[in-house]
Each structure stands twice: as C-alpha cells, then as structure tokens.
Amino acid sequence: MGNDPLFLVAGAAVLLVAVILVMGIANFARSGDPKRSNKLMQARIIAQFAAVAGILLFVLLRKGG
Fold first, then answer.
1. How far is it, in rounded angstroms, from Cα 26 to Cα 6?
2. Which key words tag this protein in UniProt (predicted)?
3. Are residue 25 and residue 37 in the same domain, yes or no?
4. Which of 24, 47, 62, 65 has minimal CB crowding within 10 Å?
C-alpha cells in the first residue's frame, strides 16, 4: 500500500491540510491579519475537500482487489 501512487497523493493531501491548519492557527495566535487568516482557512477547506475526495477514490478503486 505504501508504494501505491494514489495512496501517496492522498497522504500528501492530508499533510497539506495539516500544514495549512497550523499556519492558520499560528496566524490567529499572533493576532495577524484577519484577511490572511480567512484566506488560509478557505485554502484549508479546499485542501480538505481534495484530501477526502482522494481518500474516497483510493478506497473505491482498491476495494475490489
């Protein structure tokens, strides 16, 4: 499973979500620009959708074998 390209893409998408989330929380914590925080959270939602879609695609394609 670790060598499966679709698994690696889904894993990378999950890591991207985590990185964006940490960046957004850090920006909130240091009382940064509210517009930047909003953009980071919007980017997180988009990345999260892509991660969930990738995971579902992986499960659906690998279910049969």
1. 30
2. Membrane, Transmembrane, Transmembrane helix
3. no
4. 65
Instruction: Please name which of 43, 51, 50 lies closest in space to residue 27, comparing C-alpha atoms.
Output: 43
User: Which tokens in the block code for residue 14?
Assistant: 């999950």
Q: Is 24 in a helix, a strand, or coil? A: helix
| pLDDT exceeds 70 at position 1 | no
Residues 2 and 26 in one domain: yes
Residue ranges making up the domain that contains 38? 33-64
Q: Tens digits of per-residue pLDDT, 40-52?
A: 889 999 999 998 9
Residue type, 60: L
Both 48 and 59 in a single domain? Answer: yes
